Amino acid sequence: MNKKITSMLLCFVMIFSMMTIAVPVYAAPVASTTLTVAADKTTAAPGDEITYTITMGPVSDLGSIQMVLDIPAGLTYVAGSRSLASGLKATLGFDDVAFTENMTTGRHTINGVASAANYESAADTVIATFKCKVDAGATGSLEVGLKELEFYSVDFIDITSRFSVVKTAVAISGATPPPATYTVSFDANGGTGTMAEVTGVSAGAYTLPANGFTAPEGKRFVGWATSASGTATAAGEAITVSDNVTLYAIWEEIPTSHPAKPTLGITGTYTYSGSAQTVTVTGFDSATMLISGNVGTNAGTYTASVTSKSGRWADGTSTPVTIEWSIGRKTVTPVIRVSGTYTYTGTPVEPTFTVEDGGVVISTSEYARSITDNDAVGTGKITVSDKTGGNYEILTTSQTFEISAPTPPPTVYTSTEIKITADKTDAKTGDEITYTITMGPVSELGSIQMKLKLPAGLTVVAGSCQLAAGLKATLGFDDISFTEGTDFVITGIASAANYRSDADTVIATFKCKVDAGVSGNLTADLKELEFYSVDFTDNTSRFSVAPATVAVTIDRTKVNKVEGTSDTATIPVYGGAYKKPSVTVTTGAPAYFDIGYANGHWLKKNSAGIWERYTGATFTEGTYKFDCQVRIDKAAGLTHVLDSAGVTVTVDGVAWTTDTPRVADTFSYINVNSPEFTVT
Fold first, then answer.
1. With contact defined as beta carbons under 8 Å apart, do 327 and 277 qualify?
2. Topology given in CATH for the domain delimited by 181-253
3. pTM of the predicted structure, to 2 decimals
4. From the centroid of its chain, how far is CA 473?
5. pLDDT 10s digits, 516-541
6. Residue by residue, what is the 3-state secondary structure of 409-442?
7. What confidence score (pLDDT) does residue 179 get?
8. What architecture does CATH give domain 33-172?
9. How many CB atoms lie within 10 A of CB 260?
10. pLDDT tens digit string along 68-116?
11. Which of 255, 281, 312, 363 has the smallest CB count inside 10 Å?
């Protein structure tokens, strides 16, 4: 009582002393705090990665935080890119702070809490960084923000209204990198003069220019080639450019004679093939004439033009002789190739497909298309038909595609079994047994607790309690542990999202040692189960345990060889009296040959080759063998046992045949037969 009075007096003294001390002046609370989500660039293109930084402005009274990333369509969060600011937990003075990403739900959360004191800062505080990738086809201006804000002081005063979010816009340009361009240079190849190189030539067809060089004496220009002695292609024709190239002027001798003006004709018909085709022109003489307009790729009408290499015809004229020729449209029944899978979501399905000719994709300008039966679950149809013009004459054809129903929501498991399995079904004193705890399909799992329930006779091996590798990440838990001590307890909790799985989840392993002198069935079980969702719904009733039982037997000395001496070989003689042999065990005791009044018999082979028990008073002509058991039983059966893997039996140095040993808890035996004896 005196101690209580003294304590009360001291308290009053302290209170009155504090009243005489000047009250400190605290800074006024920060009434408005901004959360800025800043990007490392102001413009980006599809495929670019953008790094974002979350910064908190001046703040006071901060005891806990929660914020969820608000990512717009057109951006995809980069898995594994999250990072809290270095030392943030210590900076805030929080008990814990985490940045949890969930690629399944797309909900990426930062949360943390303090218990001792509020955080205050007059300066900005960097919270975290993360990355997003710009999706293909994204356009416009994209802003990443924060949502589901929750901010409290350590005394649970809601200060969320003080916080606002500042977003940074990133302009998405769909621009693609400029195509590669090349330089075309020109070589006089014996001529004189210069021609300026042509830069910025795009890959693909390039129309050859007119000759700008002066021809060598007595020669004239024929065309261009990619080597000094190459085959000439006439100016005005096209070549394919895929790299920087030098074109050489090709010259020929000026003819001194003039050919007769030809009469031209066309040999053959031509149909679009996708490749350049050269028409066969009759009347054309390549030795004395030049031809142009005789090469075409697309369907249509062309004009082939023939001139004299000497510059005029024999009749004195120089006008080109021309003839029209054509490439016809290719008639095809194309293949419609549908890509992707499709689900009906309430609006007509627009499938992605190509129309092909032998694996070559036909341009959409070549055909008309229609899509029907695409506004419900079932089979849709794509139909393509011809358009006027182009390179193809498309014969009308159709292709179906399947539209599936939306995927049902994930299963909610109302019954989950936790199985304990052992690495053996039987054991003996001193053996170590490894147990595995596996959880069956589960949903809405936000926290777990389970304790080992072990019988007398099993002792947990220190240090053997191990959680499955990566279990914390697998479950998406903030923390999980397997604690050894008086109780062996597995506990874990998540704050961001529940765990669900349609497959089994390995939780942990542990080892137990069988105590000395223990026998019987030992069952490892679990107790004191507690399972909650992240919103604190108690789901414990959904869980059951399938324990593991191991049969423990007392260790017995195995006997795998039995040897002995006997009078067996002297007994079966013609006219000799029937009697059973006597066998003395010299190796393998306490095993013995069970031969007595009711046990052990002579067998005789009958005319059909079948062994029958012999009951005659004396031995007659025939073939005999002795049949009995080798046994270990009674008190010896508790300490010794015939080896179940096999036993060799030898009598008088001769092997007897055996079968498989029969092994029980207190005895074991094996059937044996002597060698055959022939009596004559």
1. yes
2. Immunoglobulin-like (2.60.40)
3. 0.37
4. 16
5. 867 789 999 999 999 999 999 999 99
6. CCCCCCCEEEEEEECCCEEECCCEEEEEEEECCE
7. 66
8. Sandwich (2.60)
9. 12
10. 999 999 899 999 999 999 999 999 999 989 999 988 888 999 999 888 8
11. 363
